[in-house]
Amino acid sequence: MKLLGKLDWSAIPFDQPIPLAAGALVIVVILGVVALIFAKGWAPYIWNEWICSVDHKRIGVMYCSLAMVMLVRGFIDALMMRTQQSVAFHSGGYLPPEHYDQIFSAHGTIMIFFVAMPFVIGLMNFVVPLQLGVRDVAFPTLNSVALWLTAAGVLLVNMSLVVGEFSRVGWLPYPPLSELTYSPGVGVDYYCWALEISGIGTLAGGINLVTTILKMRAPGLSYTRMPIFCWTALASNLMIIAAFPVLTATLAMLLLDRYLGFHFFTNTMGGNQMMFMNLIWIWGHPEVYILVLPAFGVYSEVVSTFSGKPLFGYRSMIVATMAICIISFLVWLHHFFTMGPGGDVNGVFGIASMIIAVPTGVKIFNWLFTMYGGTVRFRVPMLWSIAFMITFVIGGMTGVMLAIPPADFILHNNLFLVAHFHNVIIPGVLFAAFAGYVYWFPKAFGFKLDEGWGKAAFWFWVIGFYLAFMPLYVMGLEGMPRRMQSYDVPQWQPWAHVATVGALSIMCGIACMVIQLVVSIRNREQLRDDYGDPWDGRTLEWITPSPPPEFNFAVMPNVTGEEAYWGLKEAAREQQRITRPVPEYEDLEMPRNSPTGFVCAFFAVMMGFALIWHIWWLLVLGFIGAYATLVVFAWRDLHERIIPKEEVARIDLENRARRNLALQEGRV
Amino acid sequence: MDIMASPPRRGRFRPPAAARVLGLVCLILMTGCREDSVFTPIGPVANGERLIILDSVVIMLAIVIPTILATVVVAWWFRASNRRAKRDPSFVYSGRVELVVWSIPALTILFLGSLAWISAHDLDPAKPLKSNVQPLDVEVVAMDWKWLFIYPTQGVATINRLVAPTGTPLRMHLTSATVMNTLFAPEVGSQIYVMNGMVGTMWWQVDRTGTYFGQSNMFSGDGFPGMRFEVAGVSPAQFDAWVAATRGRGPALDETGYRALLKQSSDLKPYAYGSVAPGLFDAIVQQKLPPGEGPVQAGNKNPFVRPVRSP
Predict the structure, then answer these.
(1) Option in A176, A351, A358 nearest B116 (CB)
(2) Does ipTM come in above 0.90?
(3) Domain architecture of chain A: domains with CATH
């Protein structure tokens, strides 16, 4: 037995300069950051206040930061794909198939699992407890474990850049291509283990948020008074609980095939590849709505705030949300109408898929009527929302087209499909993430983001989106399959060029966002949000100071109607001072920070790496380490630490003073 | 250089969203006029599918365009700086509006749902095409990375070239000797997945002579882009002549020939086999002939790390 299993020098891609250089750059950047942290003496702060933090706000910020870093990685993959397709007419382009195939697989995997998911989960983590008027989530340490397990998955995926290879079979590992016979390399193993580990994190996070929403709301905050973002978060996390175990189990079956010679999905010995497709899409279709429902929640908050009106048709929005939550589990078969199940089955699933467009359409109209009669302020989050409404209906339309089985027979698996899902996921999820990022940034950090650079980023992104993806519809109608490393049909190439220009525009958009962040940090004093309500908000998070203290609320807010904060603010405006009496402050018990999550994830990476490379002693070591961490955490003596009432009073009174001042100056 | 000389545009002008949608529609129509797309069908299947696509687009544009316009108009009219806009922050519920916003999408979907149900049956790939002409049997095998077309009645076979007599329904039975693929030619019509150990049925018909582009539409590995084939629409007389000229000449497709073909290769130029071992297709489906072996390593690289496709 070899000490390092399958790992040897052939794992390092010395013959491929691009991943090698990229990997080297990443390592240099990481080492640079670590060196800077130690040189500046920030290490104890980073370790105690962030890595070990169990504060839902910091965990939310870390989720979103992770997503943004991975957005850059996923986008570089996208740029390479677009430029490759621009030049690969009648030639091999600059990326050989074994590299190109990894790039599109990594792009899809990263964008869904490590950009969209952590961004949305991060926003929910940050916002939901604040909107519910509570001090933390139900299981704070589990929250930290969930974050770091996601980060473990990220690390494994990025490791594959320089050690071995990543999956070359697409973002979903359809067997038998993903079986050992046809993919003997370590790529599929990297994919599976990264998603097994991060999937457990996602499930833990889902359980946590569902429990929080169901059991921990502020007094008086009944279900029908809950902000719509909390409703969408509830729906989304219920779906995570129902769907993610299916993903984990399906990938586990594939891993059993690959590692222990089982035959769940193989060609031979009675394996059934169709079962994999059914199972993966029973997770995969709800996954789309896991992402898009919280995004709809963000849009609801933003449109309502920047129109100066409560959300139109609040109850109908709840019905629409929960309808989508349920119907989304009944449509998975539309991903493989072309498997030939016959007219009855295809018809039923086609119609079910279209039915989901009804509550979605209702939402669009409800946002429209929220703006109607309002006072619309075109700040950056609102611009993203309007761009979403316009763009998303086009994506919805092509989605309904694909839900008609005969149209799908001709459009399935070609670039029309690719254009469609980008046309729903980018405006539907990514624009919402950006809107939420700008909207809640001042709450998280105490200052607003620069408006000018934000608008520049917005226009580059939106124009880039249309330039990049409308040509893909055309190429799809011209019959171009997805995942083409090279082609020899001349009429596709001009459109590929247009799409590349679009990708370059999006690159400018990303650059503007980076500049926006830098400029805003430098100008933070001018952009300061001094009393905690920069957008004239309506929900409870805006009652807290920016950034909120660790305990969020000095006293639990007492909710007496819909839009809990708006009602208090109206009263305060009339009297030009805060009308709530100064409460009796008490000592607060907050959960202690804990390195459990980080240590768990460390051992999870160890186990994942050991499994990928068949280094069995390392696997045993990692398992012992992870188990020991659990034992140490379970037998801990100190659960909580006390925040003295003087500290609570100081923070709350200071915020009251700032608000009173702002009220008297008429700034609120 | 007229553009350079024209006066600058007025500063306030922005292309409204509707213009973008119209742009999309124009793009689609433009492709309709071009060669080689799903809008230049050469047979009844693609023709029916094209009609479905156009119908559904037109029906949906009827609500999508007004929705987009309404979004832009409402957002712009109720902008904070517009003094003429009548504000009504208490407008948060209206039974009538709710009725309308639920019924418009619902009615559209009711209509399109019926379209989906009927067309899913009419255009089911396995449904025989109505014709007075005797259908031609073709057996299709997806391999790494080429298409094998067997004409069992004629006893000939081709690689990467489907010769189709015009006006004749093709009754195709499809399977895979490797991973999942789909047989697809955009101008001819439907695609279905082909899987090892299973047989799919699909009907195609080519009505015009000419050569048309075809490709596997389902990613199947490193050699996938080279998995192209051509659909050669020929007159029935030419087809008979082609069969007569092919039969008995050139290589024979027996078990040895088939096993050689199983090795991974892509970008193969079309060629024909003059004879085919009887029952070859059934032997592949029943796995009496094994599926392809996947990548076989050339040189001394460790295949379990980063396999490279065989040359």
Answers:
(1) A351
(2) yes
(3) 272-528 (1.20.210.10)
